[in-house]
Amino acid sequence: MNIIFAHNFYQIEGGEDVVAKAEYLLLKNRGNVVGTYFVSNDSIKGFIEKITCLFSARYSKKSKALFEEALKKRTYEIAHSHNTFPLISPSIFDSCKEKKVASVLTLHNYRTVCPTALLMLNGQICERSVGNSSYWAIFHRVYRNSFIGTAVLANMIEYHKRKRTWHDKVDRFICLTEFSKSKFIEAGFPQHKLAVKPNFVVDPEYGSEMERREEAVFVGRLSEEKGIDVLIEAWETISRPIKIIGEGDVTKQVSNEIELVGKKTKKDVLQCIATSKFAVVPSICYEGFPMVIVEAFACGTPVLCSRLGSMAEIVEDGVTGLHFEAGNAQDLAEKVRWMFENTAKVEEMGRNARREYLMKYTPDKNYELLMDIYQQAIDEAGG
What we know:
Blueprint: E1 2-9, H1 15-29, E2 33-40, H2 47-56, H3 61-71, E3 78-81, H4 91-98, E4 102-107, E5 120-121, E6 124-125, H5 147-163, H6 165-168, E7 172-175, H7 178-186, E8 194-196, E9 216-219, H8 228-234, E10 242-245, E11 258-262, H9 266-274, E12 278-281, H10 291-298, E13 303-306, H11 309-314, E14 321-324, H12 329-341, H13 343-360, H14 363-382
Parallel strand pairs: 1-2, 1-3, 3-4, 4-7, 7-8, 9-10, 9-12, 10-11, 12-13, 13-14
Antiparallel strand pairs: 5-6
Helix pairs in contact: 3-4, 8-12, 10-13
């Protein structure tokens, strides 16, 4: 199959960037012809460029023309986009319709629905934009504390609602979980165009010979929405070690049991997960599909996560890990102690997690799902 990938990379690599690159290689390594229309926020340098870029995020004629040039290089059957904000813009979906190329968009977050992207305001879940106007967000300056930036995003969202871009221009959307699919349905996206396909990781192939340490691990940005403050508060009463891997600022004083190790290579991250007793995912936002969960499952490591959104769907409570009440440090601390005190049960959860990975999150399984979605998009575009 001939496929073109469109993606706007962030300045600091995020989960969307990792997934886009992984799917590109997945397709290419299986004999598909994969073209690219890649741009990066690294190209946005001066103040004027930032303002210009923001105002073209709604509909970029320049990006549409450049994408059309990319489409001319060969006959493509599918155009698959991951992130179009801010440099690409949804204008490329008009190009797809005009050139009769089926289009697919992966919905990694909720930016097509709300300027917050996470459906979160002041540390709390906020679904005000789901099914309603998103202009309310302007007064809260939810995008980088900027009136202008938030106004531009809200205008982009409402413009494409009015234009029916998501109904008429995109042939298939990929949601990462059933939970996120339900939110997009509530937001008015056409249900028959929403398919569910999770993220995947290449099997690290760590066997049972890996020795588990009596410690936990956290992997992710050290930011409020990732629940880092909740974790630090919980660990004030925990006398077992945890490694915190990731970049960001920690404003709270941490206990002696917390080791801040900063950024690590993917190989080192996987080794650390594979030798930890369990992974902790304490996010207080609606995560899309945390890569650390599928990485933990691949390593046979159970996950202790917030009972919230997609996380509660991916991790089965008592089977592949445990849930705790999102934002509740006391409940987290109690569940952490249980995990350390019940080794046999935790080991069983780890085995279950590994089986879950082999059933759902391998490259082979993902490729099968992806090709099926592509065929659905082609059928939709041809119909």
